[in-house]
Amino acid sequence: MDSLALLLLLSPFVGFLINVFFGKKLGHNGAGYLATLAVVVSFVATLVFFLGLNGGAKPSEIKLFDWLSVNNFNIEFGFLLDQLSVLWLMFVTGIGSLIHLYSVSYMHDDENRHKFFAYLNLFVFFMISLVMGSNLLVMFIGWEGVGLCSYLLIGFWYKNQDYNDAAKKAFIMNRVGDLGLLIGIFILATLFGTLNFTELNATILGGTNAGNTTWIAAAALALFIGACGKSAQIPLYTWLPDAMAGPTPVSALIHAATMVTAGIFMVTRLHVLFDLAPVVLDVIAYVGAFTALMAATIGLVQNDIKKVLAYSTVSQLGLMFLALGMGAYEVAVFHVITHAFFKACLFLGSGSVIHALHGEQDMRNMGGLRKAMPITFVTMLISSLAISGIFPLAGFWSKDEILMVSFHGNKALWVIGSVASVLTAFYMFRLMYLTFFNDFRGTDEQKHHLHESPALITFPLIVLGTLAAIGGLISLPGHSWLNHYLAPLFAEKTHEAHHLGTTEYLLMAVATVGALIGIGIAYAKYIKQKQLPETDENISGFTKVLYDKYYVDEAYEAIIVKPINFLSRFFRDYIETAVAGFVFGFARAANEIGYQGKKLQNGNVGFYLFAFVLGVCAIISYVFLAK
Amino acid sequence: MGNVLNQIGIENYIFLAVILFCIGVFGVLYRRNAIIVFMSIEIMLNAVNLLFVAFSTYHQDAQGQIFVFFSMAVAAAEVAVGLAIVVSIFRNLGSIDIDNLKNLKG
Question: Which is a Gene Ontology cellular component entry for this protein (chain B) (predicted)?
Fold first, then answer.
């Protein structure tokens, strides 16, 4: 089993190495198929573990070697394959395989294909080590690694300076969060003397240091800041919409389905710790709810098809954090999975549209694509219905559960979450109507070339669309396979039986009606009245505020970036000048002494002899006087 | 041997050696002719040799005399090399005035 786990982990890494060094020689699509194969191998290995665990096998922990051993503090390099990590690996490698396959076609005429697939493979490798790590430090390696790959892939088209800036922004914002994560890790190491998840859980449940609530809350908060960075929550979310600069498969894989869920994974992993800090859970719930609402409102008016999806992702991640904050970790995990299905499908669908329109991303120049691209249309429609929460698609079940737990926990947050859901339904169908309905608004040349994408693109769409439709089956209320599967993780919790009363049915009805209202408004606006979003110059009023994303970027620019730049300039102009002047002073002195000393060597042999005699005299007098 | 010292006195040897050494030093400092500078150096060497021998006798210790043999041998070798250099300089410059040897200027 150990070697299988290593195969799972290293297969994408080997793919990365081969693609990096020999990718160019593998023929036109060789690099792509090789990368896909590497991830499929991982998927198959995961499937073996998954079936084993589902059949009742024990979670396995693999210790490779001791990494750090100081006094009583020991960190081993090891991996933990339990219900949670294997579940995560299932959709990371599963959706990863589909997206790799999709990319083979999507990137087929890019000259740096092999580099693209090398990065993708490297990303999957790091994501697997993030998920599989048996302690926080191994997880941190993966955490940093996926950040790096995210940076590389956002800036993949490096000739565009805007894309490079977006990549840097993502990287730097993530660093802020990573600092929080590191601080959290340090506090945990100090408090509990171990970073191993199993031992941490046992120690915390055993009551060691459990009374030290201040420090535990501090650790939980610091870890949550880390999660905020990776999972794009207020205040560290602005990198994610900009990250859409990367190729669309990257947005689907990294910035929708996998990497951005790392924060939720980490919180779920350490849920025992978070349970001890109810204040932090409240913070998480509020941050999640407000992120969900804020991102949804921004999503209402965006015109770039990928930007809408990006804000939708931020919003959905907010809902997941809302569930985490309510202590309903399994519900958050459920939404992570369903979201991975329908959001990956939506992103890939938008990629298919962009592909057909030769790079056009502005929805104002689309329209009427329904007939030209039926498969893309149908799969995206299913996913949109799913994300809006229409019965009986996947999103309905997961979103409904989130709203249900927040209704029982905090009515105000339930209202915010519900409003965000209604807005979600609206902006998703705004996207659908603008893209696929009415008449085509692009150029004649584009119209002439309109076509359904090739099979390599539509196949992943069909698979993901199907999953978006039926994904809810894994956790139906009352008969939840997911809760049963994850039960060993939450063994310490006394589960109240999930009974479905009138309240629950009423909540479902409210949620569905809300979603229908959202869709209805979109229909009235964009189909009935055939409205089009205004051109950039004509946007005014509150729409303008939304369109410019509440000016958060500008505020960050003024509050953080400008002062830091000022400080840097100050250090460069004054402090560095002083330090450099001091250091260079020595060099200048040595130079001057040498220059003057050079004159002594004047070629006059008589002078040399004189100096020689003087020297002898000096030595002799020294010898005598010293005695 | 002892009687030699009895008749003349160790201090006279020292005076002689000092005078010879000073002559050598001044020769080195004041003369411009390379061969004379050379000879002056030899005079200094021999002043030291003289001291060695005198003290060797005074202390009834043969070590000093052995040293002198060594330094004479070294001086002979040095002269051989030095004169060769002087000849070579003369061939190149047509002069052995050390004031003309400015090619080594740094």
Answer: NADH dehydrogenase complex
